[in-house]
Amino acid sequence: MKTDWKCPDWKSYTLDHPALQEHVKKLAKLGLRDPWIRNYAWRYSPKIYKSRPEWFRGIYFKRLPHGIFLGIVASFCINKFDQWRKGEFSLKQL
């Protein structure tokens, strides 16, 4: 079985993200240096992970309407099933 995955070049992970630069500055104030910080740069890549506002926007505008619709359909079905089980349901009501 072949895959189309290609190992990314290590040079593509730069420390351009503000959170990583802030981390480097905090360590520099303490007189420390993190030689492995490039290993964490992939976490801030917009191709892989989205920022919190983008993530929430994706949930509320893409997933929430479907969830609300499914909740309404489920509650309608439950109510009609309860009416049918109690003998209150007839096709004339529809």
UniProtKB/TrEMBL annotation:
It is a single-pass membrane protein. GO terms for cellular component: mitochondrial inner membrane. One of its GO terms (biological process) is electron transport chain. It is found in: Mitochondrion inner membrane. Keywords: Electron transport, Membrane, Mitochondrion, Mitochondrion inner membrane, Respiratory chain, Transmembrane, Transmembrane helix, Transport. Its main location: mitochondrion. The keyword Transmembrane helix applies. It holds the Pfam family NDUF_B12. Belongs to the complex I NDUFB3 subunit family. Accessory subunit of the mitochondrial membrane respiratory chain NADH dehydrogenase (Complex I), that is believed not to be involved in catalysis. Complex I functions in the transfer of electrons from NADH to the respiratory chain. The immediate electron acceptor for the enzyme is believed to be ubiquinone. This is SJCHGC09788 protein.
